[in-house]
């Protein structure tokens, strides 16, 4: 994902898309990591949400699949530690 002009605020429709993306990415993470320590789920969800918003701020909302894949990889790495 090449960097774009940084977004500093999201409109209501973009926020709804990002929230849906966070929810669907978390569902994928849960399904692919069934043996994770669930006591850390709240921290992982927070990390995922932050990552999604940082990526969207930096790269925009043009490629949601790549944004989701990148955020999922990041939270998976965090879970491995």
N-to-C SSE string, H for helix and E for strand: HHH
Mean pLDDT: 91
Rough outline: elongated
Strand tally: 0
Stretches with pLDDT under 50, minimum 5 residues: none
Radius of gyration: 13 Å
Q: Which class of secondary structure composition applies to the elements?
A: mainly alpha
Number of helices: 3
Share of helical residues: over 70%
Strand content: under 5%
Biggest β-sheet strands, sense, barrel: none
What is the terminal separation in angstroms? 26 Å
Total domains: 1
Short description:
The chain has three helices and no strands.
Can you walk me through this structure?
With 81 residues, the protein is mostly helical. The protein has one domain. The protein is 70% helix and 0% strand. It has 3 helices and no strands. It has helices at residues 12-32, 41-59, 64-80. The longest helix has 21 residues, at 12-32. The chain is elongated. The mean pLDDT is 91.
List the helices and strands and how they pair.
Layout (H helix, E strand, L loop, with lengths): L11 H21 L8 H19 L4 H17 L1
Keyword list:
81 residues, mainly alpha
């Amino acid at each position: 994902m090449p960097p774009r002009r940084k977004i500093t605020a999201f409109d209501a429709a973009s926020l709804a898309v990002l929230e849906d993306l966070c929810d669907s990415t978390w569902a994928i993470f849960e399904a692919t990591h069934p043996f994770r320590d669930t006591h850390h789920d709240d921290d992982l969800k927070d990390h995922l949400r932050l990552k999604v918003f940082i990526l969207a701020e930096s790269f925009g909302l043009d490629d949601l699949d790549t944004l989701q894949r990148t955020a999922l990889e990041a939270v998976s790495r965090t879970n491995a530690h």
